[in-house]
Write a structure and sequence with these properties.
Strands 1, 2, 3, 4, 5, 6, 7, 8, 9, 10, 11, 12 and 13 form a 13-stranded mixed sheet that branches. Helix content is about 15%, strand content about 45%. It has helices spanning about 1-10, 25-30, 90-100, 105-110; strands at about 15-25, 40-45, 50-55, 60-65, 70-75, 80-85, 110-115, 120-130, 135-140, 150-155, 160-165, 170, 190. Strand 10 and strand 11 (about 160-165) form a beta hairpin. The protein is mainly beta and about 190 residues long. The chain is globular, with a radius of gyration of 17 Å. About 20% of the residues are buried.
């Protein structure tokens, strides 16, 4: 973990491109016929809990949290959902811990090395202990030389999978805290969740 912590845990902020696929159990059973919808954009992260997903395709959306409030803005629908911090999904909290270099994972997860992928990257299986909500386990694919996290695959108990493929280039950033706040544009319908 030391290499991952040096790469991620000590920097003021990070940004990198992502590609996200959500694959349901029924899609898995259908095999190649069912193509998952792929979303792309940029992730911005600042320790300890600032996270922003700026989705570009297939639709423009922003998911942003400062650790207290989570906003999900869907531009095409002109609506913004507002969630309080206790409703933050465990997936988002987990991504925050991952981008801090797997901070504190030994206390709450069992970690096993599963092997390597076809390009020689390490695959770690991270299982919540005690178990969590609907997450079964998470697979992290890590480049051994640079300790860059290439892929985060979140498997749920229903057999579904959320896969984030992270871009090759990680930029170190210095964000002001207000970069992670959100003000709905005028005329936006705000939905309190």
């Amino acid at each position: 973990f030391e290499g991952i912590r040096k790469t991620y845990g000590l920097v003021p902020g990070l940004s990198f491109t992502y590609e996200r696929e959500v694959i349901s159990k029924s899609m898995t059973m259908l095999g190649e016929q069912a193509k998952p919808e792929v979303a792309t954009g940029v992730i911005y992260y600042k320790a300890p809990h600032f996270l922003k997903f700026q989705q570009e395709t297939p639709t423009k959306e922003i998911l942003v949290t400062d650790g207290n409030v989570l906003w999900w803005y869907i531009q095409a629908k002109n609506q913004a959902h507002r969630y309080s911090s206790h409703q933050l999904s465990q997936e988002l909290k987990l991504l925050g811990d991952i981008f801090q270099g797997l901070r504190g994972v030994e206390q709450s997860f069992v970690i096993l090395q599963k092997g390597e992928d076809e390009k020689g990257a390490l695959i770690l299986e991270v299982t919540p202990s005690p178990s969590w909500g609907d997450i079964d386990h998470i697979d992290l694919t890590i480049t051994p030389e640079t300790f860059h996290i290439r892929k985060v695959e979140i498997y749920n108990l229903l057999g579904g999978l959320t896969r984030f493929k992270l871009g090759d280039t990680i930029k170190e950033e210095r964000f002001k805290d207000d970069f992670f706040s959100f003000t709905p544009p005028p005329g936006t319908r705000v939905i309190e969740e």
